Amino acid sequence: MSSPLLAEATRIAREFDYPADQVQRGVAEYIRQSNEGLAKENTTLSQIPTFVTAVPNGTEKGLYLAVDLGGTNFRVCSVQLHGDTTFSLTQSKIMIPRELMASGTSKDLFTFLARQIEAFLRIHHNEHFEAHQRRRREGHEEEELFDLGFTFSFPVRQYGINSGTLIRWTKGFNIPDAVGHDVCALLQSAIDHLDLPVRVAALVNDTVGTLMARSYTSPGETGTLIGAIFGTGTNGAYVEKLENITKLKHIKDAHYDTHTGEMIINAEWGSFDNQLSVLPSTIYDRDLDADSNNPGIQMFEKRVSGMFLGEILRRALLDLYNNAQLFKATETSVPSDSFLHRQWGLDTSLLSDVEGDTLPQMPKIKAALKEHLAIENPTDDDCKAVKILTHAIGKRAARLSAVPLAAVLIHTGKLDTDDIVDVGVDGSVVEFYPNFEGHLRDALREVPEVGVAGDKKVRIGISKDGSGVGAALIALVASKDETLKNPVEKSS
Ligand code: BGC
């Protein structure tokens, strides 16, 4: 009954199997690499100290600004924390012009960001903005500044809660002159150039924001342990004991509060196992990496996150198209300019659409092939082959995602307590890929230290708006710092 096409699709799909024994090896290696990252710099897992030493409990209050750079859109928002686990958020969103992401200078990019902040303030906080301009014109010294949390979702070596230098770009960004520079200082200088009443108070990775936002909105006895993103990129942050972060003592002038005995670590797990000692690899993974703008790095991310899953699938489909009669029936047409032939041409949302189609006629698959790849009249076998590959690639991504989660759960010893362990997640892949959490949970269960007990013990919940609310919460922590003066009136 199985046609040669489906037999070949099934054979390729098997290359994406990621069985229990590999999950377990992955977890053990992740724990090893994470300990190495806590002890020294320049390791494959960066384990970046964030200088955030407490998670919120829902009672925090105030008005803060937050901006978010890290995906296709730049977001500006103001967040009013009500102090009762709720908040109100006003935001604007703008697509970042491609040329600013990959070919301009850092000055162009940061000037663009500051202009968006100015436009936002004029629309939503004009009174305060005008008053500031007036005081400046009259030569007053006194300043009433908005504290701003800067969500910058790239690997940054942090030196304090509001300073850090860019280690490398990811997710298709590439502005070489920014690497090695303090991104908070770059933003502050662009803001000052426009004379805006804004102080960059905190530098925030989106995973840290997710952890903070989750902890604020669903406070439990013990707070949230992990914040994780499975979206365009992937990464996680977690609460670590200060005494385990032994490399902190090498950071000059490090200044942080020690009374909780903890600090949030930004793992940068997108770069887990860049050396490929345990990560699975197919020919499609290898080719994708070789043709990317950062070969040899973000190797975990390249197997898990939205920016890459579409490209893995495109390469596998192209293989079937060239070598196994996919889309070759006379009634089927693949235009020569179809995105099937274009690198990065296949959007990851196609995977979610395909996986979500359970009907025998496969209408969503047909519609997705038409919409994304301009392919008309695919046969049923074509659609089945697409589904077989999509399922395999998505399932491997979800099972791989269990590796860092299990490792952090084991490493922090939280599985041995009586409390529920809370994990906040965000991102298009975990939110929209059907049954992502189900596959992830299957793999978690296969890790003996987690086992079936993990089903109840580990609570995984979507945490929206980490880059807004989370950044506001960190700006709040930072604004309590003595060195920051005259914050904006903190009431609505
Ligand atoms: C970045 C991380 C970020 C993640 C999710 C990765 O590419 O390196 O800093 O947290 O994407 O946005």
**Strands in their spatial order, largest beta sheet:** 1-11-10-9-12-13
Strand content: 15-25%
| Structural class category | alpha/beta
Globally, the shape reads globular
Radius of gyration over all CA atoms, rounded: 23 Å
- Cα(first) to Cα(last) distance is 67 Å
Give the SSE order as H and E letters: HHEEEEHHHEEEHEHEEEHHHHHHEHHHEH
Mean pLDDT: 92
**Heterogens:** beta-D-glucopyranose
Largest sheet: 6 strands, mixed
Number of helical stretches of at least 4 residues? 17
Bin the helical content: 40-55%
Quaternary organization: single chain
Q: Segments where pLDDT lies below 50 for 5+ residues?
A: 482-492
Instruction: Count all strands and give the number.
Output: 13
Q: Can you describe this structure?
A:
- With 492 residues, the protein is of the alpha/beta class.
- It is built from 17 helices and 13 strands.
- Strands 1-11-10-9-12-13 form a six-stranded mixed sheet, sandwiched between helices. The chain has a five-stranded mixed sheet with strand order 4-3-2-5-8.
- Helix 2 (20-39) crosses helix 13, helix 7 packs across helix 17 and helix 13 (380-411) packs across helix 15.
- The chain is globular, with a radius of gyration of 23 Å.
- The termini are far apart.
- Residues 482-492 have low confidence and may be disordered.
- The structure holds beta-D-glucopyranose (BGC).
- Residues 70, 153-155, 170-171, 205-207, 229, 231, 233-235, 268, 270, 301 line the site of beta-D-glucopyranose.
- Keywords: ATP-binding, Glycolysis, Kinase, Nucleotide-binding, Transferase.
- This is Phosphotransferase.
- Its EC number is 2.7.1.-.
- One of its GO terms (cellular component) is cytosol.
- Residues 10-216 form the Hexokinase N-terminal domain.
